[in-house]
Amino acid sequence: MFTGTIKTEFLDDGKWKLLENITYKTDFSFVDKKRKSLLYSDYVGVIINIPKGFLTDFASTPKFLHSFFPPTDLDYILSAILHDYLYFSNYFTRLESDIIFLQAMKLQGCPWWKRKAVFNGVRIGGWKAWQKHSDALLKGGRILGEIKFL
User: Fold this and answer.
1) Which residues contact 75 (CB under 8 A, 6 or more apart)?
2) What is the pLDDT of residues 66-124, one digit of tens each?
3) What is the three-class DSSP state of 67?
4) Rounded to whole angstroms, how far apart are CA atoms 110 and 82?
5) How many structural domains compose the chain?
6) For the whole model, what pTM was predicted?
7) What does the alpha-carbon distance between residue 105 and residue 79 come to, in Å, rounded to a whole number?
8) Coil, strand or helix: which one is 22?
9) Angle at 113 (CA atoms; ends 15, 89), nearest 5 degrees
């Protein structure tokens, strides 16, 4: 479940800056048995606070797919911000981040066919963004929000 509203400011570099915090709270009951072992099995859920000031590009969809999957699609816009934050923070593995993203899209009411397509897209193409954020995190200087395990 998401709390907070999407209030952003467009920046010259094509990114959007959050003007308010967004919180995502979930349990891990959504995870099918095949994927359950991929998440922190000792925990029953997580609360993720995305801080005001975080920069996002919403969904990093290739331009040729924008007519089908626009970056600001209301079916998954909050989930896309969450996914950007999960990649940025590196609190979870890439696969865990993608699974949390998939579940968030479901909770947000995104149709199953769109969830599948977007999830498969991040599994195929997300490695580049993941590597960029992993490299930047090693350099330090990041201000991260808070994640609590339940």
Assistant:
1) 105, 108, 109, 110, 111, 114
2) 788 887 888 999 999 999 999 888 888 888 889 889 989 999 999 999 999 999 999 99
3) coil
4) 14
5) 1
6) 0.83
7) 6
8) strand
9) 35
